[in-house]
Amino acid sequence: MASRQVFLKDLKVADLKRELEERECETTGKKADLQNRLKEALENEGENPDIFLFEIAGDINSALQSLKGSLEQKLIENGSNLEQKFEETSGNLRGMEQNLRGMEQEGGEQQRMINTSLKSPGSDIDRMTNPQASSHMEMSKIRMKPPQFDGKSSWVNYLRQFEAAARANGWSLAEKATALTLALRGDATDILQTLSLEEQDDYHQLVKHLEMRYGQSHLEHVYHSQLKNRYQKSNESLQEFEADIARLVRLAYSSTPENVMERLAVQAFLDGLRDTETRQALTLARPSKLVDALARALEFEAAKQSCRGQAKVRRVEEGVEEGTCNEAEIRRVVEGMLEKRQIR
User: Fold this and answer.
1) Is residue 90, in this structure, part of any structural domain at all?
2) Mean pLDDT, the chain, as a whole number?
3) 214 pLDDT band (50/70/90 cuts)?
């Protein structure tokens, strides 16, 4: 690059700083300060600042312009190549995007078909994956119609049947109130005249009024007395006696826990037995449930019948009174019952 010679006054700031740096002088300050500082340095060197010529490199601007042109040309060429590659890449991306959308649509359609099959009630897949729901759906198609109530049958038994139908149908309280109102017949419908529309639509209020008229909770003291004085009749079988004891106990102790009710029923059954020997045998066996007490009583009665038959055969030889069992036979039967109880 060609150089040129200039006087001190023609030096630019960059040239002044470069000359000062070469002479190890300070390079800070304004242009005038730099000129004065360089002038002093020249004088110290024995040079005349007014006529001293400085060697300055050629015009850097032209060099920069040339370099700029070269760079721009390369950028244009590279930019053209990059633009072409960008277009190619964009085309590839658009193709991939279209393929992905197509695959997504196909997958979504298949998923919808699968979901429809899975959720379709009664479908083969639904029955295989959720047999309980399928069974429930089939059961829900069956509507249980509650029986009618005319006030002459047992209200307690009717209410149990009605509640069973309501559970099977999945009725709400409002639906139960409507169904119970429609089930009333005969004299039982008269109770509707005593109710307001709000009470008639309230299931609990409707049941409460029917309970007061046809229920038996207010007769518990009567059933207590009947149970206390209930004894087996001469022509009454053990099964009939046990059934009536069970009925009276439930009527007299309707709010009592089941285990307590069982003990009361067993005791009432024992106290009311007509046959003393049977009562004694059951007392020793100590059954915990009424059905067990009935079973033991039937076993003992059967054993007594067998014993009477054997006694008739031995009547002449042993002198035993006809129709009675000796003490050993009774003891054998009782011990057998106790052994069965321990095994169970």
Assistant:
1) no
2) 79
3) confident
User: At 22, which amino acid appears?
Assistant: E
Cβ–Cβ < 8 Å for 323, 311: yes
Q: Is residue 288 classed as helix, strand or coil in its secondary structure?
A: coil
Last residue of a domain, one of 167, 191, 215: 215
Q: For the chain, how many structural domains are there in total?
A: 3
Phi-psi region of 45 (alpha: psi -120 to 50; beta: other; left: phi over 0): alpha
61-76: average pLDDT: 62
Half-sphere exposure of 139 (CA within 13 A, CB side): 11
**Structural domain harbouring 168:** 155-215
Q: Mind listing the pLDDT tens digit for each residue in 258-279?
A: 999 999 999 999 999 999 999 9
- Cβ neighbours of residue 5 closer than 8 Å, sequence gap 6 or more: 53, 54, 55, 56
Alpha carbon distance 287, 47 (integer Å): 142
> 224 with 186, same domain?
no
How many CB atoms lie under 10 A from the CB of residue 246? 18
pLDDT at 179: 92
- Residue 57 β-bridge partners: 3
Q: Are residues 229 and 334 in the same domain?
A: yes
Domain membership flag for residue 87: no
Buried b (16+ CB within 10 A) or exposed e, 80-109: eeeeeeeeeeeeeeeeeeeeeeeeeeeeee
Q: Which of 215, 240, 261 is the last residue of a domain?
A: 215
Q: How confident is the model at residue 332 (pLDDT cuts 50, 70, 90)?
A: low
222-228 contacts, C-beta under 8 A, 24 or more apart = 223/248, 223/251, 223/252, 224/252, 226/252, 227/252, 227/268
User: Does 76 map to a domain?
Assistant: no
Helical ranges in the chain per DSSP H: 13-22, 31-44, 60-119, 124-129, 131-140, 155-169, 173-183, 197-201, 203-214, 220-228, 238-252, 258-272, 276-285, 290-313, 315-318, 327-343
Query: CA-CA distance, 157 to 215, in Å (whole number)?
Result: 10
Same domain, yes or no, for 200 and 255? no
What is the chain's Cα-based Rg? 58
Gap between the Cα atoms of 165 and 231, Å rounded:
37
